[in-house]
Amino acid sequence: MQNPAPTESGRAQMVANMLATLRIEKLSPSEALKPGLQAFVEGQKTTTDLLNEVRAKYVTLRRG
């Protein structure tokens, strides 16, 4: 059984929890990520979209 999609307030709470976890670790999101987080809260992006954007920016493709 699939969980229903979170509401905007639910997505906002998810982002708030993630930001709190970062603060505990003395980290903060990059300025480049902040618009993506807002787009997630507004339902314009998914967590998969955000993950793919971070991977595209920071992960180097290595070929054998």
List keywords for this structure.
58% helix, 64 residues, mainly alpha, globular, 3 helices
Structural notes for this entry:
The N and C termini lie far apart (40 Å). By secondary structure, the chain is an all-alpha fold. The chain has helices at 8-24, 34-41, 47-58. The chain is 58% helix and 0% strand. Helix 1 (8-24) runs antiparallel to helix 2. The chain has a domain at 30-64. It has 3 helices and no strands.
Residue share in helix:
55-70%
Mean pLDDT: 90
Q: Give the N-terminus to C-terminus distance in angstroms.
A: 40 Å
Q: Please compute the radius of gyration using only Cα atoms.
A: 14 Å
The biggest beta sheet reads: none
**Proportion in β-strands:** under 5%
Break the fold down into its secondary structure elements and pairings:
Elements: H1 8-24, H2 34-41, H3 47-58
Short description:
With 64 residues, this protein is mainly α.
